[in-house]
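Note to self: keep these together.
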Amino acid sequence: MVILRANTYPALHRSFARRVWAFLSCMLSSFWIGLGIKNVDLVWGTSPPIFQGLTAWAVAGLKGVPFLFEVRDLWPQFAIAVGVLRNRALIRASLWLERFLYRRADRVMVNSPGYVEHVTKGGARCVELVPNGADPEMFDPMDDGVPFRRLHGLEEFFVVLYAGAHGMSNDLGVVLEAALLLAEERPAVRIVFLGDGKEKSALVKQASELDLANVLFLPPVPKTGMAGALAGANACLAILKPVEEYKTTYPNKVFDYMAAGRPVALAIDGVIRTVVESAGCGLFAQPGDPAALAEVIGRLAAEPGRSRQMGLAGRKYLEEHFSREGMAEKLDQILTGMVLSRRGSRR
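Structure:
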């Protein structure tokens, strides 16, 4: 495999405007790189950032090959819903571009069943669902995580781990409010934030102001280190803002939690709640409600044996329904089918 990297304006954790410039710079540089590649069978564009889809469409058209547009996130809908995208001109342009790409793609691929209706209404002609999942082989559900727990002084606690982005959408301030409620009710509980993001410094400051001794912030670890981190947890947390649009999403972290055999404290409603409840691998708390989240965490901590069984049930369900190997086979069928279909139409 050969990977060609496109030059991009650096904008990590900076303003929204700078992120847009980063997306546009990647769009332009990747276009020129794409033009120079020979013997192309298919062009696969992915969103977000949605601007990259325009590059993929243009290169596919110039090369005369199929265009697969992958939608991993309903951008710009999510950005509009949480107030990140407010400029009316940018909103109109983004919505126009979204519809344009849906209609021009030979196939649109989504990673959540909650996205199917949206992209179909937007003009997608053929929609393929390849849901998010996880590789069970990356995780050992029987690992007790002693190295991780010992490293961070967590041996004697019931550890609830949040792993992922610390951004506006993640609503982690609610978790800190829940931690405040748990401080007296469940002193043996520790909430661990693993990762980074634009809101992390503000969250660290808020935790300090609340004097939360039951909260620990850790830097991100590479994917290869996630198995050890999740093994060190007794339960794992997934949370998003109480926004209607987020009911459509399949967060990646939930599937990693399930693969690791850890029960999920879930503060996200919608399609991912259906997965967790079908698997019997966690408890749901109403998004945006610190008291509800504290109650769910307290219930998991009060019954560690039952929590353990929930985690193992999630692992089994993931192996049967969301294994990365099964998803890869479906993706291979889609890519092969698109290429063969285009070749057949040329005869």
